[in-house]
């Protein structure tokens, strides 16, 4: 499972970097066409907006893989390790529920309902843009299952490594 996770991490990192570069080029073209050429490209604003949303969701999934998301661990550090492990397992189960119910199921429903709704400046439907929600949900679920597996096997600690917790300060 770790080999699959490492491969997914690499692909997701490459896609995120690629999306960031494309976003940078689109925004630079938008500024150049508006300020220098005095003819703003109509498609750049909408393209940049959706690229940013897609980049944010996919990058958030990658950050979740590294357990780099925001977590309030000051309370966790005060509990015994056994309680920390139980709380960490419950948190992972809640994340899986949220990712599956809200992002995968909800994202699919939103994409399906808006599939035929076109965007004004680019030849893509709103529903196609919303497909990133179920994709992000699947990725977060996958990473959460990896974390859960590590917690249950004892190979992953309840608090991400390298984090400064209240007990260390």
UniProtKB/TrEMBL annotation:
Per the record, the major location class is membrane
| A GO molecular-function annotation | transmembrane transporter activity
Q: Which UniProt keywords apply?
A: Cell inner membrane, Cell membrane, Membrane, Transmembrane, Transmembrane helix, Transport
Which Gene Ontology cellular component terms are annotated? Answer: plasma membrane
Q: Name one Pfam family in it.
A: DctQ
Q: What is this protein called?
A: TRAP-type C4-dicarboxylate transport system, small permease component
Q: What residue ranges are annotated as transmembrane?
A: 12-32, 47-65, 86-108, 128-146
- What compartments host this protein? Cell inner membrane
Stretches assigned to the Tripartite ATP-independent periplasmic transporters DctQ component domain: 23-153
Q: Which family does it belong to?
A: Belongs to the TRAP transporter small permease family.
**InterPro entries membership:** DctQ (IPR055348), TRAP_DctQ (IPR007387)
User: Where on the tree of life does the source sit, at the highest rank?
Assistant: Bacteria
Membrane topology label = Multi-pass membrane protein
Any GO BP: C4-dicarboxylate transport
> Record's PANTHER family?
2,3-DIKETO-L-GULONATE TRAP TRANSPORTER SMALL PERMEASE PROTEIN YIAM
